[in-house]
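no rush on this but wanted to send it before i forget. theres a chain ive been looking at and ive put its sequence and its fold in token form underneath. i want to understand how the tokens follow from the sequence so walk me through it. thanks a lot i owe you, the record is right below:
>
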Amino acid sequence: MEDIKFVIITGLSGAGRTLALRVFEDHGYFCVDNLPPALIPTFAELCRESRKRINKIALVIDIRGGGFFDSLFESLKTMRDTGYPYKILFLEASDEVLIKRFKESRRRHPLAPEGRIVEGIISERKKMAKLKEEADCIIDTSYKTPAQLKEAIVRNFIEPKREEPLLINVVSFGFKQGIPLDADLVFDVRFIPNPFYVDELRPLSGEDPEVRDYVMKWPESKQFLEKLHDMVEFLIPYYIKEGKSQLVIAIGCTGGRHRSIAIANELSAQLKAAHHKVIVDHRDVNKDRSEASES
């Protein structure tokens, strides 16, 4: 069973077992919540027989099983004796955080259905102490966000895959047509001198070299672009860390034909030069020119 990954998720009630199970499920694991521990060896054998279909398994085992939980260590011994490798993920949190989570969810602690939450937590810690000692990985979720817990689980249990680079969409637009609904970042470049008021530039767009040169000749344009590029480069690693796969940067002027296009093209060129994956979309460049006036 060397090619089968078998993970047992356990730990304290309220520490994040349900979220952890979802992380494994999202990565293609066959997941079972609250399987009676005595059935683990039998379940493992069924997975072995179905190895072409089920080769990544994650089980949540905890004290909700009541008296069944006491058979867990015997089942784990059977797994070791019969050559079924497994890993144990143990989730815990501080008493203060667990109490707060139970109060917020208005749930009773499974070991103190008629008593105080703190009594249930103390009792559960005692019952889980031996299992915690055998855990391959212990994660304290007290101050972890869901994204941080996911990152910790992936780092410790799921083989890293080659991640697709963050896709950056740079969209130019006209405020007269409305801000793009899917924009993550919106920048207004209407402070830049307007090519619309230059007769020979008015019929052109920001795609034309003459308009680009006019827009970029101003010191404020150069300084804005420099600061914008620096900020986007600063943000990119944090968006990736949070699991974002696409970033939409919207750059707007009045009509979306001149200034926004020139700045969007310049920013895109700089990002591409830094080896980012970039797509440029000039949303309003083909709008009726009367609608795109004063761009």
